[in-house]
Amino acid sequence: xxxxxxxxxxxxxxxxxxxxxxxxxxxxxxxxxxxxxxxxxxxxxxxxxxxxxxxxxxxxxxxxxxxxxxxxxxxxxxxxxxxxxxxxxxxxxxxxxxxxxxxxxxxxxxxxxxxxxxxxxxxxxxxxxxxxxxxxxxxxxxxxxxxxxxxxxxxxxxxxxxxxxxxxxxxxxxxxxxxxxxxxxxxxxxxxxxxxxxxxxxxxxxxxxxxxxxxxxxxxxxxxxxxxxxxxxxxxxxxxxxxxxxxxxxxxxxxxxxxxxxxxxxxxxxxxxxxxxxxxxxxxxxxxxxxxxxxxxxxxxxxxxxxxxxxxxxxxxxxxxxxxxxxxxxxxxxxxxxx
Length: 339
Fold this sequence. Notes:
The protein is an alpha+beta fold. It has helices spanning about 10-25, 30-45, 55-65, 95-110, 130-135, 190-200, 220, 235-250, 285-300, 310-315, 325-335, and strands spanning about 5-10, 75-80, 85-90, 115-120, 140-145, 165-170, 180, 205-210, 215, 225, 270-280, 320-325. Helix 4 links the parallel strand 3 (about 85-90) and strand 4. Helix 1 (about 10-25) crosses helix 2 and helix 1 (about 10-25) runs parallel beside helix 11.
C-alpha cells in the first residue's frame, strides 16, 4: 500500500477473483460473473476508469433491484446465412456475445461478412473489449449499442438519444490492432459520473441543465439535464443511425423507451447491440494485410507515432495495477453482501 496516495497494489488475478465473488454473491451465474469480472478488470488495467471497477456499483444496484437477470441463459439463433441473432433473456450483452461468438465467427469466415444482433440485453461496459478479440483473429469488427435517454438530438427539446457508443477494430499485420471506441455524446456518461463523484467541473460544451442551459456542473447534467452530441449535427446524425440500426435490427428498445422507474437503483440500459464482422481475406488473401501495414507506415511518416489501440495493446501483459484503498474497501464490502 502507498500510504501517501492511499492506493493499493493488487494483481489482476486477485482483482478478477474479488469481482467474480461480488457478481456471484448478487445472483450472477458463474459464467456471467467471470465474464463481467474479466471485463471490468481489463478496463481498469487499460486506464478506462469510467468503465472499470467504477461500474461495479451500477452492476450491483441493478442486480439487487431485479432489473437485470444475472443468471440468464442466452438463446442463439441462425436467422440467415449471415445473421446470428441472440435473445439475451434480460441478461448482460457480454454473456450473449460469448454464447454466440463461435457461430458468429464461423458465419463471418464462410460468408465474408455477417451480422450479430442482440436483443433484450444490458450493456454498461466499454465496447473495445467486445471488438478487439475479432481483430486478434484477423477479422474486422464494428459494434454499436444504444443506451438510455440522456442526450438531446440537435433540433430537439428533450433527451431521446443515448450515449450510443461506436467501436471499430481492424487487424494490422505484425502490429497492434487499430481499435477505437467512443460515445457519440460530447462525453461518456460514465466520465460525467466520475467528475460528479470527484467534485470536478466539466469543460464547456458537454451538456445542459434541466432548463436547457449550457452547464459545466456534472450534477446538473445528471439530475434533470442532458448531454449533447459531439460535433453538433454530425454527431447527432451518427447517434440517430445507431438508434435505428440497434433498436431496428434487434427489435429492442429505443433509448428513450428504457423505463426503470419500477426498479429503484437500476443503472444498466436494457436495449440491444449489433456487431458487424468482416473477413478481409474474402476479397484478396493478403490484400488488406498489405494495405493496412502500408497505411500505418504512412501515419508514422506523417509524425503519428501512436494510433488508436496501441496504448491498450502495450499494457496487455500487465499483471498488477494500483487502485485506491477506498475503492478496494467498497469492493470487499460488496463481496460480503449476498443478494
